[in-house]
Amino acid sequence: MDRLRKMNSNPTNRLTATRTVFSFIFILCLSFLNTVDARQLPDTGTYKNGMVVCAMPQASQVGLDILKKGGNAVDAAIAVQFALEVTHPQAGNIAGGGFMVYRSASGKTNTLDFREKAPAAASRNMFLDSTGTVIPNMSLATRQASGVPGSVDGMAEAFKKYGSLKWAELVQPAIDLARNGFPITRKLAADLNYGRGQFIKLNPGKNYLLKEGGWKEGDLLVQEDLAKTLELIRDKGRDGFYKGKVADEIAAEMKAGNGLITKADLENYHAVWRPAITGSYKGYRIITMPPPSSGGIALLQLLQSVESYPLSRWGFNRDSTVQLMVEAERRVYADRSKYLGDPDFYKVPVDSLLNPAYNKKRMSTFSWAAATPSQSVLPGTFAGYESDQTTHYSIVDKAGNAVSITTTLNGGFGSKIFVGGAGFLLNNEMDDFSSKPGVPNMFGLVGGKANSIEPGKRMLSSMTPTIIEKNGRLFMVDGTPGGSTIITSVFQTILDVTDFGMDMQHAVDAKRFHHQWLPDEVTEEKGALDDATKAILTKKGYVIKDIGGIGRVDAILVTPTGYQGGADPRGDDTKLGW
Ligand code: GLY
Q1: What is the pTM of this model?
Q2: CATH (residue range 2-23+276-379+464-566)
Q3: Cα(219) to centroid of ligand 1, in Å?
Q4: Distances (CA, A) of 295 to 106, 289, 341, 384
Q5: Which residues surround ligand 1 with Cβ inside 6 Å?
Q6: Which amino acid residue places its CA nearest to atom 4 of ligand 1?
Q7: Measuring from atom 2 of ligand 1, which residue has the nearest CA?
Q8: 246-293: pLDDT as tens digits
């Protein structure tokens, strides 16, 4: 069993947090926590029978126990999802949503979209005032900020199709963790303490997740209300959440503060199976998430954009490598702003965006001499076109079935609003819609019609759960939280392995940088780019800013001796194998 990794760092949505007061306060507070423990050397041990890598040690243990009981990767994923709700309230969830990418041991692929949906009463301009201006924080820290949750239905769907143990066995470990409590990590204690003001302000009269005198590492977090909610899910499946007592409690919470989610919204929610989108990169096959994630398409565009260049000769994070990747990112995020949205509402031009000739043409407009200003890069055109907090886990079982799931409440602790009596936090995923064309969301992302608010529509996501094959066999399982930086973190982790020859842990540890078209700046984890590289790029016109942390990648690599995990030292992420 691998050792537990416990290190502090900032939340991954720090990059654009200043765009709203809500996120600013949260992120500013966490900036004081960026004290990194003395590093241990990466453990590159391998395991033949299975591996779980996720955000919290207790949840990884739950997943590993399920694998050891004979459960498959999907069984373990379901148990981990519920265990993360208890142990990682910043992002683990039953009232959020997410995406699963699945590859069976025999190579069959599938994806499950359990992204939240806009409630039936949502409307395009719901976050604008009478002058048409976006109302600060309304899409983040109110009951209107919540989309109809998808996670419980997603887990029930995944179980129906692929589960092999009993459903109750998969939910019970989370109930035990909630009822008996678990000792919290230093990071969770710090995050809870910094969230305290918002918890009090947004939940008058309730003291859930608050502790007199503040939390400290090792304190026991007991969540009895949540244990009762999880028991209903254990006993009644999806109906334990979308009908009856919990649905009543969600509807009552909404009524208490102008929220929009109704019992009918809950009952009508259904996760959707969608075929994976696939692409190739230097002989590898990339299996990833289709819209309403922008992540899969953007990742494939990025890989196409850099494929013909000698990255490994240039070297990891050297100036040519960084310049090329940044210019690719600039163009791909410009496309994202215009063309990506919920495919059930908007015709996403998938084939055009993934046409290698299109991406080659896009890259032909950049010059090695100077940065291309983002203002001069519009979303591309093509003939025939019609029109932070998150968490990730990667699991592989003994047979070789692989699951890559990214799931989210959006902001840290979601909207920070609890469902009274039910013991869980609501998402603030409505902020992932474009409230108004051209106005950035919490992550600084802009959008337009493709991602405008409509009743029943899913908001665009950057989540990029991905599985990679080499020579027809499973090679890597990858993904991360991090809002807009998710796509570029997955992109970099792949290149770190395929082009720069890193093992899984080193690839996860490696420092990252990011560009997203607007704002026109390169953000880097301090030290990602050395001084000489920064000097060359700055001279060419690139604006480079240090930020605290980018992404929390949890990934698995298949090596000749077994599964090799990479658990991100930026969080409490933990890899366990057997
Ligand atoms: N809430 C972040 C994302 O879905 O991209």
Answers
A1: 0.92
A2: 1.10.246.130
A3: 30
A4: 25, 7, 11, 23
A5: 390, 408, 410, 432, 461-463, 483
A6: 461
A7: 483
A8: 999 999 999 999 999 999 999 999 999 999 999 999 999 999 999 999
